[in-house]
Amino acid sequence: MSDVLELVDVSVVREGRSLVDKVSWSVAEGERWIILGPNGAGKTTLLNLASSYLFPTSGTVGILGEKLGAVDVFDLRPRIGMASSALAGKLSARQTVLQTVLTAAYGMTAGWQEEYDEVDERRARAFLDRLGMNALLDRKFGTLSEGERKRTQIARALMTDPELLLLDEPAAGLDLGGREDLVRRLGRLARDAYAPAMVMVTHHVEEIPPGFTHVLLIRQGKVLAAGPIGTVLTSAELSHCFGLPLVVERQGDRWTAQGLPLG
Ligand SMILES: Nc1ncnc2c1ncn2[C@@H]1O[C@H](COP(=O)(O)OP(=O)(O)OP(=O)(O)O)[C@@H](O)[C@H]1O
To answer: Parallel, antiparallel, or unpaired: how do β-strands 246-251 and 254-259 relate?
Structure first.
């Protein structure tokens, strides 16, 4: 199993309902995927499978060449970087931005110790610099704006040098400036040949960073289409996915979508 992710016929059933239903999907090295779909479609469930925090009811999940169920997830998890609001909720509000990123190198959400490796501190500073957080290194995490918090989390997710980076709605709750800033930074990361494979969940095509290569469209737990962004992200496919007539447009390396006026 050489793929970064390989889901074969995967279903997750809770209370008699399939949250994801017979999903087959693979992510190869170097690919940058967007998972797009309406509320409740199963996007976060897919990310939870990909991060090894959820096991399928049926089907097989391969992550970084290992089969879920046949590998110690505690060996696997350090190889996966994740940024989500659920994870952000577990971070200490009292730690500084630098501490928040640095503790990731030690597999902790809290617990500042006096002695950290100088190399780790340099890395944490470099990631924060790349995400435009240089001026806020000593600010307490709890005092950050939503956009600053998201950028700190992404720096934190990169800290363990992951082979797979999972981003759950990184632009949710950001104002226009914050969104555009984050989209540009994610675009730069996506185009970095040394960056890990990436999977980003979003509700909005406007949030797709330049350089993302593939899209998976999901609705009611079923994959409607998955493949290269230029072929999958059409008006017809997106309309089907969100259940209303939509017009998708590509302008350069960005996307927009609009509902058709009511007749
Ligand atoms: N443990 C659970 N038991 C029962 N239903 C669940 C459970 N976890 C999630 N669900 C349901 O599964 C469906 C898919 O949830 P999921 O969070 O994957 O959707 P999503 O596409 O990420 O949605 P959103 O865009 O609203 O965040 C939702 O209808 C949700 O209510």
So the answer is: antiparallel
Q: pTM value?
A: 0.92
**Domains identified in the chain and CATH numbers:** 5-259 (3.40.50.300)
This model of the complex carries an ipTM of 0.94
Report how far residue 81's alpha carbon sits from residue 157's, in angstroms, rounded to the nearest whole number. Answer: 4
Atom of ligand 1 nearest to the CA of 218: 21
pLDDT digits (tens, 9 = 90+) for 172-227: 888 899 899 999 999 999 999 999 999 999 999 999 999 999 999 999 999 999 99
Contact 148, 156 (CB under 8 A): no
Pocket test for ligand 1, best of 45, 168, 222 (most atoms within 8 A of CB): 45
**Pairwise CA distance, residues 194 & 211, whole Å:** 13
Of 216, 212, 214, 144, the residue nearest 183 (C-alpha): 212
Place of tokens 């806020």: 136
CA of 85 to the centre of ligand 1 (A): 15
Q: Is the pLDDT of residue 112 over 80?
A: no
Nearest one of 169, 54, 153 to 104, comparing CA atoms: 153
Angle in degrees, 0-180, between the axes of helices 118-130 and 176-190, rounded to the nearest 10: 120
State the distance from the centre of ligand 1 to the C-alpha of 8, rounded, in angstroms.
Answer: 20
- Interval between CA 43 and ligand 1 midpoint (Å): 8
